[in-house]
Design goal:
Length: 152
Amino acid sequence: MKEREIRHLIKIVEETGIAELEMKKWWGEKIRIVKNGALQRAIIPEIKPAEKIIKIPAEQPEKVKTTEPGKSYFVVTSPMVGTFYRAPAPGEAPFVSVGDAVKVGQTLCIIEAMKIMNEIEAEVNGTIAKVLVENAQPVEFNQPLFCIDESK
């Protein structure tokens, strides 16, 4: 909005008995003038409806390799904060255990976040060398969950 237009709106508020004036342009620009002894001006951006918000995908955490003397593992980390579950339901067998062979895309565990069950899949072929989290324990973003030995 141009300064000339804003000054005109202020003059309208001063000359009339109104205490507040709000104007909105079709492209979303908005101005609100309030008279409280002294004039206050504020340009408030319009909040777009949710369907018009552009979502930028978050970067996926880079999976890292860790080494021990004589060993190199692919470390699967948690992509979110939540609760770690080894099995699809209470009382059922875990998705994977130490020594199990895994293939890319195979479900390793579930992380519950905000009542949504998120399956975490293997990103490499190999053998489960370590399970680093106990069942039903809370996990943090990027916390190591499994070590996969790719050499087997």
